[in-house]
Request: fold
Amino acid sequence: MNSLHHVAIIMDGNGRWGLKNKNSRNFGHLSGLKNVENIIDISMKVNLKFLTLFVFSTENWRRPKTEVNFLFSLIKNYFKKNLKKILDKDIKIKVIGNNRGIPKPVLNIIKKVQTKTKNNKTLYLNLALNYGSRDEIIKAIKKAKHKKINEKNFDNLLFTKKIPDPDLLIRTGGQKRLSNFLLWQLAYSELFFVDKMWPEFNKNDFLKIINSYKKTKRNYGNI
Ligand code: IPE
Ligand code: IPE
Ligand code: MG
Reply:
């Protein structure tokens, strides 16, 4: 049986789910956020150490300004309201991605949450915000300058420094693509694509995937 340390999730399908159920994409984002809490709780119950969630991509700026603003206010208000809960649960929050363009109040609250939770140990929760894998890799190359680079020390130049590669990637929402998420880190991860939209992805769906992952034979090129 494979051990499981790190799950990465592309939480797709909020907009479509919201439109279908309440004629509002933003309602879908709100429900998606509720489901994030749910999945965090299950992750902790199964003693997962690292959970990385794709929250906003470097390409999501192409969306209507009203939707982008809604998403950032959702994130800000969530942290404002729930910092105590996050501390009580002993969750360490790390935000990965590019700061450029993120509203100042959002950056401030992120800074606060990261500082306050920095010694927490039970779950390492990484939130990919304004994250793009190509952006991350270019930044790493610029940082490398004339250093002699190899696969190991390149890892340390990425936003995900010190975070082990995901064992498992889940994408909800029916699309089978990576959308510029963790391209380097997912080289040997097990990929699971789910037709359900993110707000309807539940505990059972998650546990089934974990079980199936545990039984997969991981070769890494070997036989
Ligand atoms: C994913 O859901 C959440 C974000 C990108 C913020 P979407 O908003 O992409 O939902 P669909 O794919 O349009 O249904
Ligand atoms: C990926 O979903 C980004 C997040 C889940 C945050 P998108 O909905 O943006 O992906 P594409 O555009 O359909 O590939
Ligand atoms: Mg989408």
About this structure: Residues 53 and 179 are 13 Å apart (CA to CA). The chain has one domain: 6-215. The mean pLDDT is 98. Residues 11-16, 56, 60, 71, 173 surround IPE (ligand 1) (CB under 6 Å).
